[in-house]
Specification:
It comes from Saccharicrinis fermentans DSM 9555 = JCM 21142. The protein has helices at residues 2-9, 15-38, 41-50, 55-61. With 62 residues, the chain is mostly helical. The chain has one domain (2-61).
């Protein structure tokens, strides 16, 4: 990694790639947490029980 660090250190503006990358990560993390918290409990119970149901039962619900 020493070679890569030396090459990237000399590139002007390389820090913007790190800033953009961490910004995208934080935005996606916040969106996922928000959607998880705002999901109704009934929908979560439906997801939980879906693995135990037969495929025929799932087709009837749609």
């Amino acid at each position: 990694m020493g070679f890569v660090s030396e090459v990237l250190k000399d590139v002007d503006g390389i820090q913007w790639y790190y800033i953009i990358g961490i910004s995208i990560f934080i935005i996606l993390f916040v969106i996922i947490v928000y959607r998880t918290v705002r999901t109704p409990k009934s929908k979560l119970v439906q997801y939980k029980n879906a693995i135990l149901e037969d495929e025929e039962d799932l087709e009837d619900d749609m």
